[in-house]
Amino acid sequence: MTAASYTKLTDTIGEDIVRLKNLFIAGAAFALSAFPAMAGELSFWHAYAGQQDKVDFINFALGEFAKKHPDIKLDVVAAEQSSYKTKLNTAMASGNPPDVFYTLPGGFLNAFVKGGQMYALDQDLAKDGWGNSFLESAIAQTTKDGHAYAVPVDVDSVVFWYNKALFAEKGWTAPATYDEMLALADKIKADGIVPFSLGNKDSWPATFWFQYLEMRLKGSGVIASFVNQDANATLGTEGAKAFEMVAELAKKDYFPTGFNGMSDQEANMLFLNGQAAMLLNGTWQIGASADAPEGFELGFFAFPTVKDGAGDQSDVLAGVAASFGVSEKAANKVDAVTLLKFLSSTEVMTKYVELRKTMVTVKGATTEAAAGPVLYGISNDLMNKAGHLDSFYDTAMPPAATNIYYSSLQGVLDGSVKPADAAARLEEALKANK
After folding, report:
1. Which domain CATH number covers 303?
2. Are 188 and 260 a contacting pair, CB within 8 Å?
3. pLDDT in tens, 108-143
4. Theoretical Cys-Cys bridge with 325: which of 150, 387, 392, 404, CB 3.0 to 4.6 Å?
């Protein structure tokens, strides 16, 4: 072989090697783009930390998921509710969102939707009856502009809680009207007991009072009309009246001393120890009452009717408390949806009810056996008979409006903000839609 022919042969072999290398790279790239679900790993963030019933639930759910889907590996990040929102907001703002994550409905979720950061689940929900497994009113709270961006998990309602044993001892009866409740509060106060426990340090506990009064006076759907940018949306004169009625409760010393600086947990202890007779709070109160002293018996009644109120007096404050969504950036959406379907399955949701004593959004999962008599009674006697279910104002509002809502209500309660000013300030913030 001559030097020239040897050189030509080596050049040909080199070119073939380069061509084979390029074909291999192209084939690998195609395989990865055509089959993204093969990645088999998802980042999953949740806020079920720091509270035993939450920890028990998520450990059960993820443990069962690992058994049934051993091919899908989860990189799990857990946080407490108080710090979770900040952590998630930071991740979303930096462009490094988790693949699947816990989120709140309403304004919190809608901010991510507005930023194009959420994967729309419509096509997935339309398959195999998955979408029909949820309560329609619950899916509506995670839907924006006709698209569902998260699956709702649990639904909390707010009722009045009372110590049945204490009421029986004192000869008190649960009131049906607002006037009857105020008369009862005077009797309780005269007996040296706080009528209504309230710890408003974190601002949200007092919102239940304002919202129910607005619902009874004006009707449900008030905040939803602002969120949906209805040109006719307004709190009406009822907004100022509701703030005024809340202020009157504080002036009459129906709440504990220093309630605006008291935590919800501290207020709960006053209630459980018999130092306060009633408490307006969510259905999570059932779990919070698990360690009550001997002799305590938890009872509930609906928020009373308000004379001459224009709202449907059977309406219940109830909203989706948590949901799970998928990031638009998630590369492995097939497995992400598999995880969501599992978390929202009847099996997992019934266990959720059993462990957390909270109603869930999946039809048929809030059974009497899993829920217990109190929660099942609320579900059956109040929720099912309600004219409307009105979602939580503060989670439905956009973030800036929520902050105005919190600060205005705290100011009304401590007397530093006039009820009419609070209503005007809140309506202005809601119309700004920020």
Report:
1. 3.40.190.10
2. no
3. 898 999 999 999 999 999 999 999 999 888 898 899
4. 150
